[in-house]
Amino acid sequence: MTATSTILGPGLDDVTKSEASLRRFLHGLPGVDQVGADARAAGLGTRSIKTTAKEYALDLAIRMVDLTTLEGADTPGKVRALASKAMRPDPADPDCPSVAAVCVYPDMVATVKETLGSSGVHIAAVATAFPSGRAALDIKLADTADAVEAGADEIDMVIDRGAFLSGRYQQVYDEIVAVKAACARPDRESAHLKVIFETGELQTYDNVRRASWLAMMAGADFIKTSTGKVQPAATLPVTMIMLEAVRDFRELTGRMIGVKPAGGIRTSKDAIKYLVMVNEVAGPDWLDPDWFRFGASTLLNDLLMQRTKMKTGRYSGPDYFTLD
């Protein structure tokens, strides 16, 4: 049994019944030793893997990518091209797996849906006044409902960091619960909810741990580091703390929650470091696209280049794959 589950006890039912009890719970979580966390994450980042394991890791990392474009200049043509690449990342290699999802703004969901068809690649949409989260709740819920109605399989919401940092935990909790309810679809499984913390603004590792537990208790299907719009974005230590949280949460409740680092993960070497960490910290059950994702726009090309190198013995030119 972990230190967290020992301290928290057997149940969470009463924690969210009042602002005071929620605060006591979150501030009663074990503190994070920043120096120790940084050292452990750095140590895990030095692990090497054998050639056969690397081949598997590259294909797994491709399958975990949420191929993303979140720019004001996004056009239907650009989004269609990205969705086509998501289905066939390397058109010259039919054995290359497809990515997990295409992540866009809500107004582009219908375009992605039309392009992906029944390919099995998921459609993710950012919502709730992404990336700032600065909007009234009714606007956030309408944003979510529009994306779900258009066909989004997954919603990436952002928490109100101002509310969280001010200690208004119940407000953040209630907003996640409300957005989760807005993900419901009458004719099929509800859209999965990924809750983005923007860890670069949370200031401390203790806050990352608190945000992780808050989101999981409120019904998040995934917890996600960043929007990719604020630096620092995903880091190994922050992701490690989130992996510890989902591991402990499953031990306490029996429910698995996914983790998605996003922003700044650009190379295959970086991706493999994260996969090693997933295995060592949370366990092999999380080495699956259903439970771990990379939010990325440039990572895929490097994964494809490294994959080609392992198959052919030589690198392709940097312009061999489409630039996204």
Automatic annotation (TrEMBL):
<dbReference type="Pfam" id="PF01791">
    <property type="entry name" value="DeoC"/>
</dbReference>
<dbReference type="InterPro" id="IPR011343">
    <property type="entry name" value="DeoC"/>
</dbReference>
<comment type="pathway">
    <text>Carbohydrate degradation; 2-deoxy-D-ribose 1-phosphate degradation; D-glyceraldehyde 3-phosphate and acetaldehyde from 2-deoxy-alpha-D-ribose 1-phosphate: step 2/2.</text>
</comment>
<keyword id="KW-0456">Lyase</keyword>
<comment type="similarity">
    <text>Belongs to the DeoC/FbaB aldolase family. DeoC type 2 subfamily.</text>
</comment>
<dbReference type="InterPro" id="IPR002915">
    <property type="entry name" value="DeoC/FbaB/LacD_aldolase"/>
</dbReference>
<keyword id="KW-0704">Schiff base</keyword>
<protein>
    <recommendedName>
        <fullName>Deoxyribose-phosphate aldolase</fullName>
        <ecNumber>4.1.2.4</ecNumber>
    </recommendedName>
</protein>
<dbReference type="InterPro" id="IPR013785">
    <property type="entry name" value="Aldolase_TIM"/>
</dbReference>
